[in-house]
Write a structure and sequence with these properties.
Blueprint (H helix, E strand, L loop, with lengths): L1 H35 L10 E7 L19 H16 L6 E5 L2 H13 L5 E4 L12 H6 L2 H18 L9 E7 L1 H12 L16 E6 L5 E8 L27
Parallel strand pairs: 1-4, 2-3, 2-4
Antiparallel strand pairs: 1-5, 5-6
Helix pairs in contact: 2-3
Length: about 250
């Protein structure tokens, strides 16, 4: 009987020891996780991106897009209209970026006239290109290597521009680029298949707004908003846009 009692007490001691050890281990892990994690600042600002497709340009110009394919008079008017739209917003713009292609660069230069305090920064990673798509007719006529290079380019651009504000200040960044680029970015923001970018259309000087919180989450606020451009001055991709010249009224 004494043997059984001793054995029972020994078993209880062993169970108690393991119970205490487990509690100590869990406490240690919890303690470490609390004090070893890098805290995310709760007071970081919000970054808002204003993506703008360039104005209407001379499609018949056969020159290199870094030299030719200038904005036509309609594209200049569209650029000034979107600049006024941005100026009317109750925020302070903090930066202005554009593609190096002529049509985007000139659009940004016109916007810059409305925001002379901003330094225009140009980048090749937001140049127009064609990424992979579900459209077989597009895929058949494009070089597979060019398609992949474009995708890599746009992934790099997305990781560079679509980031939270680094401090407590809100950021309002204007990015003037191209239709394919903006549509690809939108698929990334929405976390949908990037091959679906051609399911959207974009207008010249249409406004797409994306908001990025301090934790990196993103929301699409508006896509291809063209309310600042009168209907008779609107042009868009994939449409049979009629030539629209801006003319002075004839004298009587």
């Amino acid at each position: 009987m004494r043997f059984n009692l001793t054995r029972s007490r020994s078993s209880q001691l062993v169970v108690s020891f393991f119970t205490i050890a487990i509690i100590a281990f869990v406490f240690t892990i919890s303690f470490s996780s609390v004090f070893c994690q890098v805290p995310v600042p709760a007071n970081n600002g919000t970054r808002t991106l204003y993506l703008i497709r360039h104005g209407q340009y001379d499609h018949d110009d056969k020159r290199d897009p870094d030299v030719g394919k200038n904005l036509v008079s309609l594209g200049i008017a569209q650029s000034r209209l979107v600049a006024n739209r941005l100026k009317s917003l109750p925020v302070e713009m903090t930066s202005l970026h554009s593609s190096t292609m002529t049509r985007a660069r000139q659009t940004a230069m016109l916007i810059n006239e409305t925001f002379p305090e901003l330094e225009l920064q140009q980048s090749r990673i937001i140049r127009e290109c064609t990424p992979p798509t579900w459209r077989e007719d597009i895929m058949d006529r494009e070089d597979p290597e060019n398609l992949e290079e474009c995708k890599d380019q746009l992934e790099t651009a997305f990781s560079e521009y679509f980031i939270p504000s680094p401090d407590s200040d809100d950021r309002h960044d204007i990015i003037v680029c191209h239709g394919n680029v903006i549509r690809y970015f939108v698929t990334k923001v929405l976390k949908v298949e990037t091959n679906s970018w051609l399911q959207m259309t974009t207008g010249n000087c249409g406004l797409t707004v994306v908001r990025i919180k301090s934790n990196g989450t993103m929301k699409l606020i508006t896509f291809n908003d063209m309310g600042h451009i009168p209907q008779n001055l609107q042009t868009e991709t994939g449409s049979n846009n009629k030539l629209k010249d801006l003319l002075l009224p004839e004298e009587n």
